[in-house]
Amino acid sequence: MHIDGTPVPVCTVDNRSAPERGHHELRVIFASTPLAVRDALRSTLTGLRSLHLSKDEASTVELVLAEVMNNVVEHSYADNREGMVELHVEHSYAGLLCRVLDDGAPMPDGNPPVTTLPDIDVPLDMQAEGGFGWFLIRSLAEDLDYRRDGARNRLSFRLPVARAPRSC
Amino acid sequence: MQLETTVTDDATLVEVMEDRVDAAVAVQFKDAMREATQGGPARVVLDMGRVLFLDSSGLGAVIGAMKQMAPDRRMELAALTPAVEKVFRMTRMDTIFTIHPTSQAAIGNGAAAAPVVDEHHAH
Question: What is the pTM of this model?
Answer without folding.
Answer: 0.87
